[in-house]
């Protein structure tokens, strides 16, 4: 005999619905009785000010130690962001100065509104690639895309739509990031070999590469691969820590040398770009021309704030208005804001030091940052993992480090762009490729296989589709596949089926679903309950402790289920139904069919009153 299970308060039971404590729909506050002045006063307080304008929380505590840390970090990041911005604009299919245009104003805005000290705002590799795929290298479309991206991010923050980011799961994100890394590396092959490459997808570009590889230059790939080897070597040198295995720990000399090697590794991009730029300058001034392709002339000066363009002239001399431009940008208007936010929030979590990240505030900060950058003729950007690692390793203390980074970019635009034209394109391609190699997340496959093999399906689907299709379509399809998995899981709840006995010795079948009843699962639940019930003629009890919510479709299914049981004269009872769920079921099901109880001893009384149940014979008296 299976021992009878007790249903008490410790197992999650609820009192009857007429009990004043039964409902799980609690009223937290009655704001209808509050005046509008009281509501405003309650919302506009010091805590809200610190939350929505984070600079007000740390600025009064700012001191010399924090200022020095921010100064070092800001300058170090500036040496990183300048060559990165020049290279990323090439990924976006835009002239190199447009990467710099998006690297200073956003830093200033993030100082005031940003919530993470190690997020240097500016162009990113992923946003640059998406911009190229969506805007197609058209400057006006890229700037308008930035404006609309900022507007969408800001609205998402104001309306609290951050939950949309949760639909991009870990496997989908890993597949997307890995595919983007390969796409970015592929986009740089044309500069690495000095050839012409056409196509927008991964396969199309590689087909074009193999068709045109015979036209490759000799010195561009030699310089490019040499720079990649140098950059990877300097990265490795920067990771060396001297004296760690010493019994007494690293000495002062070891610490100084370790710091110098770290600085060498951190500034490797700037060092390679400067050295190759000097080489290009020497060739042009002494030989009259360079054997490798150079960047060419770059306009100097900080751009004048300008309203983003809402029209542009196409290649066929027709004019596209705002509606046409939005139509041409297509799904990129949704994908780019989500991906930029996803990347930024992931960086914030990695460098928050255990502090809670306010995703809403990050959305507002990034939204205003991109809106502001669009008036500076920049394309979409956000937080960059590579720059965040440099900033965190440089001892950053607050978001004030963005001031020094922004000032360095302004100085570069104002005084040094005349020297940027001598930088070889192969060197910038090497900077990108050497950084992108470490974005391929192949290391997640093994733990994902061990944890849950099905998670590989949306991840691999996203990876393959992002390479075969335009990237925004690839990730949207990956998200849809992931949602299908979620819906399938929701449509197939697990059941516990037990044969139990009451205190009077009457047998009954206890069926316990493990989750809520919603429209995707109701047919499956009804079919399974009917199958279990028809194989036994005993009464059936559905344990509803884990059913926290239901909908109209579920209520209709319960009505049909109770009608089926009533038609074949088999008792059906519902145990421990939440009051909110009970009201949904009672609104549809017939009262005489839908029987609910909350206490163990009620079951015996229900059995005794039900004439469909054969009376239990009393046990024989002992002699």
Automatic annotation (TrEMBL):
Span of domain SLC26A/SulP transporter: 69-457
Region (Disordered) location: 1-26
The entry's keywords: Membrane, Transmembrane, Transmembrane helix
InterPro entries: SLC26A/SulP_dom, SLC26A/SulP_fam, STAS_dom, STAS_dom_sf
Topology term for the membrane: Multi-pass membrane protein
Subcellular location as annotated: Membrane
Bilayer-spanning residue ranges: 67-86, 98-119, 154-185, 216-234, 261-284, 329-347, 402-420, 426-445, 457-488
Name by which UniProt lists this protein: Sodium-independent sulfate anion transporter
């Amino acid at each position: 005999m299976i021992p009878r299970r007790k249903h008490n308060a410790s197992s999650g039971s609820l009192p009857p619905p007429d009990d004043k404590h039964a409902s799980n729909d609690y009223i937290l506050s009655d704001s209808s009785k509050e005046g509008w002045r009281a509501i405003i006063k309650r919302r506009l307080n010091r805590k809200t000010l610190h939350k929505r304008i984070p600079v007000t929380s740390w600025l009064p505590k700012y001191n010399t130690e924090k200022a020095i840390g921010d100064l070092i970090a800001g300058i170090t990041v500036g040496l990183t962001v300048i060559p990165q911005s020049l290279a990323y604009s090439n990924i976006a299919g835009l002239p190199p100065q447009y990467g710099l245009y998006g690297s200073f104003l956003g830093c200033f805005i993030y100082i005031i509104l940003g919530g993470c000290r190690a997020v240097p705002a500016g162009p990113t590799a992923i946003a640059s690639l998406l911009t190229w795929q969506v805007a197609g290298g058209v400057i006006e479309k890229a700037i308008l895309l930035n404006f609309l991206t900022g507007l969408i991010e800001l609205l998402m923050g104001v309306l609290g739509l951050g939950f949309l980011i949760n639909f991009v799961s870990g496997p989908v994100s890993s597949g997307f990031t890995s595919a983007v890394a390969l796409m970015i590396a592929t986009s740089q092959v044309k500069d690495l070999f000095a050839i012409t490459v056409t196509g927008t997808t991964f396969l199309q570009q590689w087909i074009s590469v193999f068709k045109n590889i015979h036209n490759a230059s000799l010195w561009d790939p030699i310089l490019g691969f040499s720079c990649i080897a140098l950059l990877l070597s300097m990265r490795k040198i920067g990771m060396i820590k001297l004296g760690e295995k010493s019994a007494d720990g690293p000495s002062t000399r070891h610490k100084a040398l370790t710091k110098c090697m770290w600085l060498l590794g951190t500034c490797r991009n700037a060092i390679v770009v400067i050295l190759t730029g000097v080489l290009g300058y020497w060739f042009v001034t002494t030989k009259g021309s360079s054997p490798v392709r150079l960047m060419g002339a770059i306009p100097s000066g900080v751009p004048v704030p300008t309203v983003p363009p809402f029209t542009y002239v196409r290649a066929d001399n027709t004019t596209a208005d705002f509606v046409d431009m939005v139509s041409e940008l297509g799904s990129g208007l949704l994908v780019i804001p989500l991906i930029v936010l996803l990347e930024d929030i992931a960086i914030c979590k990695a460098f928050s030091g255990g502090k809670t990240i306010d995703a809403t505030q990050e959305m507002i900060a990034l939204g205003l940052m991109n809106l502001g950058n669009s008036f500076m003729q920049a394309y979409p950007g956000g937080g960059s993992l590579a720059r965040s690692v440099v900033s965190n390793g440089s001892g950053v203390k607050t978001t004030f480090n963005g001031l020094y980074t922004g000032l360095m970019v302004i100085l570069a635009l104002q005084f040094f762009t005349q020297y940027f034209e001598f930088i070889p394109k192969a060197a910038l391609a090497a900077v990108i490729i050497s950084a992108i190699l470490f974005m391929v997340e192949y290391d997640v496959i093994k733990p994902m296989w061990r944890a849950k093999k099905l998670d590989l399906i949306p991840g691999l689907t996203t990876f393959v589709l992002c390479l075969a299709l335009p990237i925004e379509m690839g990730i949207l399809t990956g998200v849809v596949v992931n949602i299908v998995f979620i819906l399938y899981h929701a449509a197939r709840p697990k059941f516990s089926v037990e044969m139990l006995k009451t205190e009077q010795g009457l047998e009954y079948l206890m069926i316990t679903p493990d989750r809520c009843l919603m429209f995707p699962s109701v047919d499956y639940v009804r079919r399974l309950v009917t199958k279990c019930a028809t194989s036994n003629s005993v009464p059936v009890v559905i344990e509803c402790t884990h059913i926290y919510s239901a909908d109209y479709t579920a209520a209709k299914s319960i009505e049909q289920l109770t009608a089926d049981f009533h038609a074949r004269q088999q008792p059906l009872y519902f145990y421990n139904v939440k009051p909110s769920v009970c009201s949904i079921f009672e609104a549809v099901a017939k009262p005489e069919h839908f029987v609910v109880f909350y206490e163990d001893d009620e079951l015996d009384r229900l059995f005794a009153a039900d004439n469909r149940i054969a009376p239990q014979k009393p046990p024989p008296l002992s002699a």
